[in-house]
Design brief:
The chain is of the alpha/beta class and 403 residues long. Helix content is 39%, strand content 14%. The protein has a single domain, classed as Aldolase class I (TIM Barrel, Alpha-Beta Barrel). The strands form three sheets. Strands 3-4-7-8-9-10-12-13 form an eight-stranded parallel beta barrel, surrounded by four helices. Helix 7 packs parallel to helix 8, helix 9 packs across helix 10 and helix 11 packs across helix 13. The longest helix has 24 residues.
């Protein structure tokens, strides 16, 4: 059905490109019921394959100017990003960015390939807009991901060279290292590894040259012992060594990629205070709040699949993750950029995250349920929220609930 829609685009007059683009995104909603009939992991695999081959709509319309912002010296056309976990192996970066995300985060990537936990390991709680997963860092490994990102990086460089010498392509949209839009690379550790720091350092050495920002994932609930790295001493030691590994590399004028840490929503007040102290002391570039939860917030707790082991994502996670976001914004005194993640399914949700202290916002589960049509809708709704309350930019609204 997507193929027919795309083929139709070659036939239909493109005099009104914006209208046709909107129709193309809306037409993808016809496919969603078919994906719902498939096994969750197979459907996910099919979606990644479709995006990797360009069988997804491409956003041709410019983002509303109110959504643009600059952070870490990088320009985002909008603050809506795709969280890590969807494109674990960097197979579909170009297709995903082309759909209109302001940024896409790939991974988590582990040094060595690993299968992850036994299947089935993804469970839909559809009526609650939630998912439970216990994938366990299934990854093709650093070498494979580096080859993919390297090829894409080389292609991007060739396009930049061509555009700089050709007057007909001078209006090429400039973005990050992966092309239009910003690319984040999320780093994980192997399950059997006894030296977590060495795994993250290896990730930095191999993949940082292709990343607009890097993420240390210490918060997945599906790798034994991983969340212990969020402790004050463990986190401080880890971040210092990873920062040193990044800084010892040779960088061009734009410098090394920012380094972020992704934390869990299931932390105590003391845990959050410790993480904030480490982040401020080491001048961490940012925090992602949050990963999935091992709790089962209402109403998901009553679902027959609620007892399945793993992390829960989606709508029931929204309040929990947003409360942690608020707490961390206060603890870091607004000095560290925060990415709000967890339960976002509308522009109003994204706006609440931003007012609670998030500079950028990520989603995943809502995208898995809603498909490509969700992206332009969320951006339009967020722009309406900002304009409704008199904000001229996203950055003006960051942390507005505390000002």
């Amino acid at each position: 059905m997507i193929g027919l829609a795309i083929a139709g685009g070659a036939y239909v007059s493109t005099a009104d490109e914006a209208k046709f683009c909107g129709w193309l995104f809306k037409s993808t909603q016809l496919v969603n019921p078919l994906f719902a009939l498939l096994d969750a992991e197979f459907a996910h695999r099919l979606a990644v394959t479709a995006a990797s081959h360009g069988f997804v709509p491409r956003e041709k319309r410019p983002d509303p100017s109110v959504l643009g912002l600059e952070i870490w010296g990088r320009k985002f056309t909008n603050p809506i990003g795709l969280a890590a976990g969807f494109d674990k192996n960097a197979e579909a970066v170009e297709g995903l960015l082309g759909m209109g995300f302001g940024f896409v985060e790939v991974g988590s990537v582990t040094p060595l390939p690993q299968e992850g936990n036994p299947k089935p390991r993804i469970f839909r709680l559809r009526e609650h807009g939630a998912v439970i997963n216990r994938c366990g860092f299934n990854s093709e490994g650093i070498v494979v991901v580096a080859k993919r990102l390297g090829a894409q990086h080389g292609k991007r460089k060739m396009e930049e060279t061509s555009s700089s010498t050709s007057p007909t392509t001078s209006d090429v949209k400039q973005g990050g290292k992966a092309g239009p839009g910003i690319l984040g690379v999320n780093l994980g550790k192997n399950k059997i590894s006894e030296d977590a720091t060495a795994d993250y350092v290896q990730g930095v050495h191999t993949l940082s040259q292709y990343a607009d920002y890097l993420v240390i994932n210490v918060s997945s609930p599906n790798t034994p012992g991983l969340r212990k790295l969020q402790g004050r001493k463990q986190l401080k030691d880890l971040v210092k060594k990873v920062q040193a590994a990044r800084d010892e590399m040779q960088w061009a004028e734009d410098g090394p990629p920012p380094l972020l840490v992704k934390i869990a929503p299931d932390l105590s007040k003391q845990d959050l205070e410790d993480i904030a102290a480490v982040a401020l002391a080491l001048r961490l570039d940012g925090l992602i709040i949050s990963n999935t939860t091992i709790s089962r917030p209402s109403p998901a707790d009553t679902h027959p699949l609620a007892q399945e082991a793993g992390g829960l994502s989606g709508k029931p996670l929204f309040d929990l993750s947003t409360n942690v976001l608020r707490e961390m914004y206060i603890l870091t005194r607004g000095k560290i950029p925060l990415i709000g993640c967890g339960g976002v399914s509308s522009g109003e949700d994204a706006y609440k995250k931003i007012r609670s202290g998030a500079t950028l916002v990520q989603l995943y589960t809502a995208f898995a349920y809603g498909g490509p049509a969700l992206i332009p809708r969320i951006k339009a709704e967020l722009a309406e929220c900002l304009e409704r309350d008199g904000f001229k930019s996203v950055q003006e609204a960051v942390g507005a609930d505390f000002k």
